[in-house]
Write a structure and sequence with these properties.
Elements: H1 2-10, H2 24-42, E1 46-48, H3 59-69, H4 76-97, E2 100-106, E3 109-116, H5 123-138, E4 145-151, E5 155-162, H6 181-191, E6 197-204, H7 213-222, E7 226-231, E8 240-246, E9 256-265, E10 269-277, E11 280-289, E12 292-301, E13 306-315, E14 328-335, E15 340-345, H8 355-363, E16 367-372, E17 386-392, H9 401-414, E18 417-421, H10 436-440, E19 443-444, E20 456-462, H11 470-484, E21 490-497, E22 501-510, H12 514-522, H13 533-545, E23 550-557, H14 566-574, E24 577-583, H15 593-602, E25 606-607, H16 615-623, E26 631-632, E27 639-640, E28 659-660, E29 663-664, E30 669-673, E31 686-693, E32 696-701, H17 711-714, H18 719-730, E33 739-746, E34 749-756, E35 765-772, E36 776-786, E37 789-795, E38 800-810, E39 813-823, H19 836-846, H20 856-862, E40 867-872, H21 874-893, H22 898-904, H23 911-936, H24 947-956, H25 991-1010
Parallel strand pairs: 3-4, 3-6, 6-7, 15-16, 15-17, 17-18, 18-32, 20-21, 20-23, 23-24, 24-25
Antiparallel strand pairs: 1-2, 2-40, 4-5, 8-9, 9-12, 10-11, 10-13, 13-14, 19-29, 21-22, 26-28, 27-30, 30-31, 31-32, 33-34, 34-37, 35-36, 35-38, 36-37, 38-39
Amino acid sequence: MKIKELYQQLVPRARTSVRWRRALPLIFFLLLYAGLCVGLELSGVLLFARPWAFVLIFFAVWVWWLSVAGYGGLSRGRALAALLTRLVMLGLFVILIAEPRSVRVRDVISVVYAVDLSDSIGERSVDEALEFVTKTVTEKPPMDEAGLVVFGRNSAVELPPRMSFPFEALNSRIDRDATNLEQTLSLAAAMLPEENRGRIVLISDGTETEGSISQILDELKSRDIAVDVLPIQYEYDKEVWLENLELPRFVKLGENYEASVVLSSLQDGAGKLVLRENGEQIYEQEVKFKAGKNRFVVPVYLRDPGYYEYSATIETQAADDQIRENNTVINYIYVEGEGKVLVVTNPAGDDRDWESLVKAIREGERNVDVVSAYEFPSDSLSLMPYDAVLFVNVPADAFNVIQLKAVHDSVFNQGIGFMMVGGDNSFGPGGYHRTVIEDALPVTMDITKKKVLPKGALAIILHTCEFPEGNTWGKRITKQAIKVLGAQDEVGVLVYDYMEGEKWLFKLTPAGDYEKMVPKINGAQIGDMPSFVNTMRLGLKGLKESDASTKHMIIISDGDPQPPAPQLISDFQKNKVSVSMVAIFPHGGRDISTMRAIAGATGGRYYFPSDPNQLPSIFIKESKTLKRSMIQNETFVPEVGMISPVLNGIERIPPLFGYVLTTIKPRAEGVLNAPEKKEAEGEIDPVLSFWRYGLGTTAAFTSDLSPNWGKDWVNWDHYQAFVKQLMIKISRVQKQDHLKLWSHVTGNKATIMVEDFHPEESFLNVAARIAGPHDRKETVVLKQVSPRRYQAEVPLWGKGRYQVTALGKSGEREDHANGGFIVPYSPEFLRFRSNPIVLEEIAQKTGGQRLDPVNATDVIYGRRDPKQSSNPVFDWFLMALAILVPLDVAIRRVQLDWYVIKGWFGFGKEQKQSTATMGALLQRKQDVVDDLDARRGGSTEQTGQSTLAQLQEQGLQKGPATTPKPPGAKDSGNQQSAPPPPQTPPDNQSTTGRLLDMKRKRNSEDKDNDQ
C-alpha cells in the first residue's frame, strides 16, 4: 500500500485530459538539448568526460508530467515558463554530471633537445650536437617552443621550452661516467606542456649503462610524444686499454714482489709500459702485445711501512690508440707499521702556530708528518698510515670538498683520530660551519642567543656565468657561502629571470633555514641581466630594512651589465653597505674597471680569478667578513668538567688568553670549559671536548697550543705530558684483527673477499660497507664460499675511490678489516662503437624518425598536427544553474500587479477612480461582516467556516448566490447542494483568486469521492 501511495505522489494522475500537444514543449526541449550537446561535441567546442550521464536527461519526461498533471494554479503562460526553466535546470545538471571540458586546439610544437654528454661522446661530437641544436632552433617557426636537456649518469635542464632560446654555454653539472636514457627521456617528457604538441629530439650514441628504456617508451607513446633521434656514430678499430693492475695480497718489508698489468687491444701493437709508485716512476719498458688480453709482470720492492699507490700506464702512438682515458689503471698496497700523527697547517699561517705542538708530540715518542693544506691527501685510503690527524689553525677554504670528505671518512670508517686546534682561522671563523668536519667534531659552530654576538646580513647577486657549467658554479658557491654564516645571520639571493626580470630568489632569511634555501637555489633560472642598477637597488633596500649590524653584498658577473649611477653608489656608502665584485671571464677581455671601481668605492674587494675552481674559496672568504665575533680575547683559567685520562697527573692548569666560541654537542665529553659568564647563564663554552664518531675519536681544543693564546702552556712543565696523553686519547687503537680484506674490479663489478685467520675456526656473519663516488654508500652481506673465506659482488657506480669496511661477528667476537679499490676511468671508455639499434627502437616505438642534419628542421617542426587539449568548465555551468534556481522560484511564487506597475508610469485609470474603487471594496467588506454578525446573533463562535473564509466565498465567488440556512438547521438525508458549475477564471483574475478557486474545486471533488 505504501508503494502505491509513493507512486501516486511521484507520478500523480492527471486532473484533466492530457493531449499530445501539451508535450510539444518537452519534445522541443529534448530536440534542442540533444542538438546543442551533440553540436558542441562535434564542433570541438566542448567534450564530455562522462557521456553516459546524458541518460539522465530522460527525467525530463517526469518533470514535464508533474507540470501538466499537477495543480500549480499558474496561468498557462507562467506554467509554460516554469516548465521550461526546470527543464533547462535539469539539462544543466546532467551536463555537470557529464563533466564538460572546454576544447582548445593549438598548432604549437614544443621540442626538447636531449644531448648526450657522457664520456663515450667525444668533445668534438658534443660541439657538433650543440651546433645542430642552435641551427634547427634558429630556423624553427617563431611560435614554436624549444628547450634543452643534457645528460650522462644523471640529467639536467639547461633551458625549459620557450619561444626564445637564449643558449650561450652549458651550465649544468652532470656525472659523465654513465648513460641513463630512461631518466633523460622521463625528464624531457615532464618538461613538455600538455597543451602543445610535444616532441623530443634525442642526440646520443645509443649506449645505455644505467636504467631501462622499455618502461618509459610505453609512457611516451601513451602521451603521444614522438622521439626523433640523431645518432652520434663512431667505431674504433684500433684501441689499447689497461684492464687491471694486480698487486700482492700480503707483503713483508724487504722482500721482492711482482705486480701484474693486464693489457687488452683490438689489434697487435707495441708501446711503452710505465709503472709509478706514489707518483714517482719506478719502471719503464718497451712492450709488444697481441690482439686480445696480455699480461706483463713488473717487480716491486717495499722498504718501509705505509701506503703505496701504484699506477700503470701504456703509452702508444696516437694512430694506434684513439681513447687515451683508459690507458691507466691504479691500485694500492698498505703495509702496516708504527702509527704516525699528521699535522696539517695553514699555507698562509705562522710556523709558531704548530712548532711547539709538533715538538711535544715527537717528545712523546711519536712520528709526526707536517703538511700544508695544499699538500693534504684527497682520499681516505692515503690516510691509513696515520693514527691521528690534527688541523692547527687552518681555514676551511684552504681545502677542497674532496679533502675534507677524506678526513671525515677516515675517521668514521677507519677509526683514525682527529682533532682541531683553535685560532682565528679555526672552527666558525675558519668557515667550518655546516661542513663534514663539523659533523665529526664534538662541538657545533652554532652559537646560542645568550652569547652576545652581533648579526650580519649578506645579499648575493648572481649574474649568468657564460663559461662551461657557469651557473652551476654560481649555485654551488652560493650554497657554500651560506654554510659559513651563523644561524642568526641573514642572507638573500637576487637573480635576473628571463620571464620576471630582476627579483629576489629569496629575501633576507636567517642562514639557519639553509635547508629551505637549497631547493630555491638549485631551481633558479639565472639570466643575463642588462644592468646592475635594479638588482643593486633591490638588494640595498632589503639590507636597509634589516636590523643587522654588518651588511655586505657580493656580485658575481662577467662585467657586461650597465654600471649603477653615482647616486646609487652614494646610497651604499651612506648606509655602510660594502660590495665585493667577482669578475668571471669578461666578454672578450672587456675592461672591468667598473666592477673594480664599485668595490673600491663601497669598501669591498675585487676578484678576477682565472679558474672557476677559485670561486668557492672567494665566496667563503667573503662570507667570513660577516662572521660574528666568535673569537674571545680574554684571560681565563679553564675549569675541569668531566674527569679524563688526559688530565692524569695534572693538578694545576695555567691560564689561556683566548678561545673560539662553540657549542658542545649532546653526549660529548666536556673535559675543560671556560668559566660561566653572567650574560650567558647556563651556557658552557667548551675548551677541550671529545666524542666517538663512527670508529674514531675526535677532539676540539678551542684555544690554541702555541705562544699566542697558550703562551703560558708552551712553557708549562706538564705541556709535553698533556700533549702525549691527548694523542693517546684520540689515536686509533692498533688492535690485532684476524680478518684480511682484498678486492678486485672486473668490468662494471667489484669482487670483495674477506678471509678469516683466527686461531679457532668458526662461522662468521660478515657484512661490508662500501663508500664510493657521488657520496653513495652500499652495504652487502658476504657469503661463505669456502672454509674461512667470504665473498660478494658489488655493482660499481662510477669512477673514483671506493672504501670498504668489513665487519665479522660470531658470538662475542667482533673483527674489522679495512680496504678499498680504485676505478681509474669510466666504463664509458670501454665502448668502442655506437649503438644505433637502440635509437631506432626508441624512434619506432614512439612514432619518431631518424633525423638527417640536412633537412632536420623541416622534419622536426614540419610534421604539424594541431593538438587538442581540454580544461574543465564545471564552474560556468554551475553558476548558470545557480542563477536559474531563484528564477524558477520567482516564476512560481512572485505575482506582479501590472495595474500598480502601470500606475507607476502614469498609465490606466485616474487616481480618483482608484480611490473610489478601494472605498467601495471596503464598504462591501463591512456590509458582509455586519450581515454575518447579525445571523450569528452576535456570537463569536464559528459554525463551519471562519468569517474570513465566508468573506472570501461571498466576495470572490462568481455565479448565483445561495441562501444561507438558519443557525442549527439540518440538511435532509437525500438533499445535497449542487456544486456551482466550473468556471474558467478570467485572465485578469489575481493569483489569490485562482488559488481559492482551485481549493474549492479540490474540496468538492474530494467530497464526491468520499461519498
